[in-house]
Amino acid sequence: MKLARSGLIHSKVGNMSARIGHRIFISKTRSMLEDLAYSDIVAVDDLGPSRNDVRASSDLPMHRAIYHETKNKAVIHVHSPYAVAESLLTTDECIISDDVEMKVVLSRIPLMDTPGEYGLPIAEYGAELGKYRALIIRGHGTYAVGSSLDQAYFIAHCVEHACKIHYLCRIRS
User: Fold this and answer.
1) Per-residue CA distances from 162 to 53, 83, 120 (Å)
2) Pseudo-torsion of CA 82, 85, 90, 93, nearest 10°?
3) pTM reported for the whole predicted model
4) 3-state DSSP assignment of residue 36
5) Which domains does the chain have, with CATH numbers?
6) In sequence order, which residues have a C-beta less than 8 Å from that of residue 143 and are 6 or more positions away?
7) Half-sphere exposure for 130 (CA within 13 Å, toward CB)
8) 17-to-10, 104, 166, 169 alpha-carbon distances in Å
9) Which pLDDT does position 69 carry in this prediction?
10) What angle do CA 89, 90, 96 make, to 5 degrees?
């Protein structure tokens, strides 16, 4: 799969979903995205809860919040190395793309704390993705959205590229 070949995922980390009507088709918990099979996808209600929730990725609440707060049809969550590294190295509230092409696609990538005790209520993450095409949760990875899985993949890949450029520019200074 493209996610593994491009270095955005490894092993059993990350998840993806697509919304069709009032259903979310999401990767199961502990599924291998690089080798995803039809049996690794579970359908749940978009507003939840549903009987299949226990089989879905543990990030299902985030996916539901994103779909509830936006018109996006696809979400990809990856633990890509440069995005995670940048989220841990910087105290900035966002990453601003340094290269010209990425500025067109992603002018700003918000960096947010983990939901829960120290972070915002989960709905706030969905609301951020109504304004931006991606965000990075510190130490956890990127959530990229789009009108299709292909578009969400493109955005996730652009985030990783922007973070790599950001990181390489930082070590030169």
Assistant:
1) 34, 8, 25
2) 70
3) 0.89
4) coil
5) 2-172 (3.40.225.10)
6) 62, 66, 75, 76, 77, 125, 129, 134, 135, 136, 137
7) 12
8) 17, 25, 28, 33
9) 92
10) 125
For 70, half-sphere exposure in the C-beta direction (CA atoms, 13 angstrom radius) is: 28
Residues forming a β-bridge with 135? 143
For 53, residues 6+ apart whose C-beta sits below 8 A from its C-beta are 44, 60
Report strand pairing: 134-137 vs 141-146.
antiparallel
- The DSSP symbol for 12 reads T
Which residues, 6 or more positions from 172, have their beta carbon under 8 angstroms from its beta carbon?
A: none
Q: With contact defined as beta carbons under 8 Å apart, do 146 and 133 qualify?
A: yes
Q: Which residue has the tokens 């290269």?
A: 99
Weakly modelled stretches of the chain, pLDDT under 70: 1-12, 32-35, 116-119, 172-173
pLDDT in tens, 58-80: 889 999 999 999 999 999 999 99
CA dist 57 and 77 (Å) reads: 11
**Cα gap 26→38, rounded to integer Å:** 11
The dihedral region occupied by 123, where left means phi > 0, alpha psi between -120 and 50, and beta the remainder, is alpha
The amino acid sitting at 154 is F
Give me 17's structure tokens.
């979903």
**How is residue 56 annotated by DSSP?**
B
